[in-house]
Amino acid sequence: MFRSRAKAEKATTEQVTAATEPRDPEAPKGRPTPKRSEAQTQRRRAVAPPIDRKEAMKRQREVRRQELAKQREALASGDERYLPARDKGPVRKFARDFVDSRFCVAEFFLPLAVLILIMSMVRVAQLQNIALLVWLGVIVMIVIDSIGLGIRLKKQLNERFPNERKRGAIAYALMRTLQMRRLRLPKPQVKRGERP
User: Fold this and answer.
1) Are residues 118 and 66 in the same domain?
2) Containing structural domain, residue 79
3) Residue 140: inside a domain, yes or no?
4) Domain count across the chain
5) Does pTM top 0.70 for this prediction?
6) DSSP string spanning 13-63?
7) Are residues 175 and 107 in the same domain?
8) Considering only 30-39, 99-108, 121-130, which range has the smallest mean pLDDT?
9) How far apart are CA 104 and CA 51, in angstroms?
10) Could you say which DSSP state residue 188 is in?
């Protein structure tokens, strides 16, 4: 109120320069805290020019749709560039080819499970007992086959990719064995019996 005009002008120029220059976070602020209404109007001005939200969402959906289409094509063709992150890399490709080049008991799990379920629903005690024994046999064979496959795959990965990151490759391969060959994605690139 009783300030001189020179001091008032100096204070306003200091406020302007302080607002435009970045300051050290450790330094004291050197100016009074602005009122909430002032801070909100400054924030509103700093925001990018308004874009039509519906249009932006539509564009974003279209870009996402194109990316998913590329991924679907890559899963069908095996194109490394557009595969999802879980399927990318030479280690994962080798694990896929290693699994696809051999017969695995686990890939017949689904059809056998349906067959065993049908056998267990029949009201004949002997057939239900047989279904239970077949179920137990299938589980034991899958476990033994998976352990053997995991050991062989780990050995091959250590030989071929000594400096690559192999974390999760064996679990990835074992999950692939549980899928029927025709339904696997990315599609198998090697025939049975071929060396990966």
Assistant:
1) no
2) 54-86
3) yes
4) 2
5) no
6) HHHHHHHHS---TTS---SPPPPHHHHHHHHHHHSPPP--HHHHHHHHHHH
7) yes
8) 30-39
9) 55
10) P
